[in-house]
Amino acid sequence: MTPGQALSGKHVIVIEDNPIVRMGIEDVLRGAGAHIARSFSHKADAAVLDVTLGSGITAIPIAKTLSLRQVPFLFYTGQPETVLAPIREQWPECRILPKPSTPQQILAGVVSLVDKHGVRTGAY
């Protein structure tokens, strides 16, 4: 499978408050064949979450919901370890990519989520 097909047919949600960063992640994922889901009401195969979303809002409630729905996710964040420690405790298997990461690292992280969890079915 070529890099352009690594996420072919997969639906990925990207939650990121910085529009430039979000667009960059989405472009990388689209380049690998992913569809970017704009709503949680649609099927999702994986998600990329920034930990902090501005104005004191975090992606933790989203991560909890994704966990309940068995949608694999990773965190992509620039937060220090003091903020990440409780996240690592709650989701010890969750991958946390530091900002900045290369497009290849982000793609590899999402591909590993999809590969590890297999194909998702149904709507969320």
Give a structural overview:
This protein is an alpha/beta fold. The chain has a single domain, classed as Rossmann fold (3-Layer(aba) Sandwich), CATH 3.40.50.2300. Helices cover 38% and strands 16% of the residues. It has 4 helices and 5 strands. The chain has helices spanning 19-31, 60-68, 81-90, 103-117, and strands at 11-15, 35-37, 46-49, 73-77, 96-98. Strand 3 (46-49), helix 2 (60-68) and strand 4 (73-77) form a beta-alpha-beta unit. The longest helix is centred in the C-terminal third of the chain and has 15 residues, at 103-117. The N and C termini lie far apart (28 Å). Mean pLDDT is 91; it is low at 120-124.
Note the main attributes of this structure.
about 120 residues, alpha/beta, Rossmann fold, five-stranded parallel sheet, about 15% strand, disordered C terminus
**CATH homologous superfamily annotation:** Response regulator
Tell me the β content: 15-25%
**SSE succession:** EHEEHEHEH
Strand order of the largest sheet: 2-1-3-4-5
In this structure, how is the largest beta sheet organized?
5 strands, parallel
Q: What is the number of beta strands?
A: 5
Radius of gyration: 13 Å
List low-confidence stretches: 120-124
The average pLDDT score comes to 91
Report the CATH topology name. Rossmann fold
CATH architecture: 3-Layer(aba) Sandwich
Classified by CATH, the class is: Alpha Beta
Number of helices: 4
Terminal-residue CA separation? 28 Å
Total count of domains: 1
- Global structural class: alpha/beta
Helical percentage: 25-40%
